[in-house]
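INFO batch 0412 | record 1 of 1 | parsing
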Amino acid sequence: MTSHRIIPAAELRPGPATIIVALPGRTIRSRVLIASAEPHGVVKVAFESGDVLAFSPRSVVGCIDPAPRPRRTRRTRVA
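INFO prediction complete | emitting tokens
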């Protein structure tokens, strides 16, 4: 089951979650490669898609966390 949530841009971290950003002319759906909070509050984010955006401190984005993978159990061989 995937988890959908809205998070502040300042909380963005690189990882497997897909981030959704709605812009006036298009929508970006990609993973975060680099997230850097600047001293004056702006958050710069580089996405896997190649897009680089600067968010204001009050911006929020959609986040879709991937479903956790089932853990594999080790099988023991019987000789």
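INFO post-check: DSSP finds no helices and six strands in the chain.
INFO record closed
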